[in-house]
Amino acid sequence: MTFAGGEIKACCAAAYSSATARFLLGDSFHPGGAALTSRLAWALHVGPGDLVVDVACGPGSSAYQLVRETGCEVIGVDLAPPAEADDPRVSFLRGDAEALPLADASVDGVLCECAFCTFPDKATAARELARVLRPGARLALSDLIWQPDGLPESLASLEAWVGCVADARPLDEIGGLLQEAGLVVDLTEAHDDALAALLDRIEARLEVVAMFAADGVAVGRELLHEVRAALDRGLLGYGVVIAHRL
Predict the structure, then answer these.
(1) How many domains does the chain have?
(2) pLDDT, tens digit, 9 for 90 and up, residues 190-242
(3) With contact defined as beta carbons under 8 Å apart, do 216 and 209 qualify?
(4) Pair type for strands 107-113 and 90-94
(5) Cα angle at 229 between 195 and 223, to 5 degrees?
(6) What is the band of 31 on the pLDDT scale with cuts at 50, 70, 90?
(7) By residue range, what is the domain housing residue 108?
(8) Is the pLDDT of residue 89 over 60?
(9) Are 244 and 139 in contact (CB under 8 A)?
(10) How far apart are CA 53 and CA 80, in angstroms?
(11) Which CATH number characterizes residue 20's domain?
């Protein structure tokens, strides 16, 4: 099943800006939470005076964490309406990962957490991530990944796409797209345990929702069950790619 890029983007923007998403996912909208964000922040090699763009930043939790831990400045870019920053080192822009509202070679680092899988045109998004990096600057990307055997048809729905599953790619394919965009891949890592922990948290919180709105969680439960089964079978996982621009 295929969906128009605009439809996917609109659904993602609406879903991840909702109170429901914040309740189910917590402050960090990605597997690994603050601990994995710290790992990515370290990999960026940035500090005071540097500028980082957080692509598909969601509510901005990682942007603020980067500022606290590294002293850099951060621009968060997301399809949803921008939040009002409460730290002078953080700003937010409304924008598309496939057409970032930033100049060429204008940032010292790019962070992209659990979002590349939702971008309809991944090759264009990869070129945009590379385009805005200054020479020598780094990209730290984490994302859902699937193994070459492929995911079941049941995980090809629009809900699964918004849930970061339907268009997930193998880790080496993500690396290949980044290399084609002009980046050099320095490191890849598997973090499947982080995905398992996030699924546990979502499952527990869905049970709380079910106590008050039983009819409203059927789709979420079914999708969660399918994702868990794919993870258990080794078809789905979570990974990190660190790359730099020459």
Answers:
(1) 1
(2) 999 998 888 887 776 665 454 444 455 555 677 778 888 888 988 889 999 99
(3) yes
(4) unpaired
(5) 80
(6) confident
(7) 5-245
(8) yes
(9) yes
(10) 16
(11) 3.40.50.150
3-state secondary structure the chain: CCCCHHHHHHHHHHHHCCHHHHHHHCCCCCCCHHHHHHHHHHHHCCCCCCEEEEECCCCCHHHHHHHHHHCCEEEEEECCCCCCCCCCCEEEEECECCECCCCCCCEEEEEEECCHHHCCCHHHHHHHHHHCEEEEEEEEEEEEEECCCCCCHHHCCHHHHHCCCCCCCCHHHHHHHHHHCCEEEEEEEECHHHHHHHHHHHHHHHHHHHHHCHHHCHHHHHHHHHHHHHHHCCCEEEEEEEEEEC
pTM of the predicted model, to two decimals? 0.84
